[in-house]
Amino acid sequence: MPRYFTLPEVNGQIPALEEAFGRVMQIRAQLKTLYRRLDEKRFAPTDEHFSVNIPGAPPDVLRDRANFKALVETLREELERVHATGCVIKDVETGLVDWPAQSQGREIFLCWQYGEKEVAFWHDLETGFAGRRPVSEL
Q1: Which partner for 44 in 31, 39, 66, 120 could form a disulfide, CB atoms 3.0-4.6 Å apart?
Q2: Short-list 119, 13, 81, CA closest to 109
Q3: Can you spell out the DSSP letters for 37-66?
Q4: What is the spatial distance between Cα 120 and Cα 131, in angstroms, rounded to a whole number?
């Protein structure tokens, strides 16, 4: 049986989530920069588990690949901390998360996106972000 959250509970999480997604956005920007630099030199990582040490690679490539791997791990840890709060991460790129909740005996999601100061929207399980409605309707 899933845990259901209340609006005050999730609004209490927003300051920490705002900070966490701020870090996530910074890490993602750094990863994109490193990836472009590695790709230009034809040393871009091709999957999650890539080798840092490539025989014959220039020192700057080895450094960038090591930094990339460390940033991927930091991003993974940050997202695991966010997920541990009980929310469902829907879109890392935009910082979109949902919390399972109930309203009038039916399951819904309370919905928040990075940059919003509080949870102001909800949606049915089937409609997703496109079906967001104001929490004042609950």
Answers
A1: 39
A2: 119
A3: HHHHTT----SSS--S--TT--HHHHHHHH
A4: 13
Does the pLDDT of residue 2 top 80, yes or no? no
Q: How many CA atoms lie within 13 A of 122 on its CB side?
A: 21
User: Can you tell me the distance from the alpha carbon of 80 to that of 83, in angstroms, rounded to the nearest whole number?
Assistant: 5
Listed by start position, the domains of the chain span 7-137
Q: What sign results for the dihedral spanned by CA atoms 109, 105, 84, 8?
A: positive
The pairing of strands 121-124 and 133-134 is antiparallel
Residue 44 CB: number of other CB atoms within 10 A?
17
Count the Cβ atoms, other than its own, within 10 Å of residue 60: 12
For the record, the structure tokens of 41 come out as: 């030199």
pTM of this prediction exceeds 0.90: no
Number of H helices, E strands in the chain: 2, 5
> Token match 């997920």: residue?
83
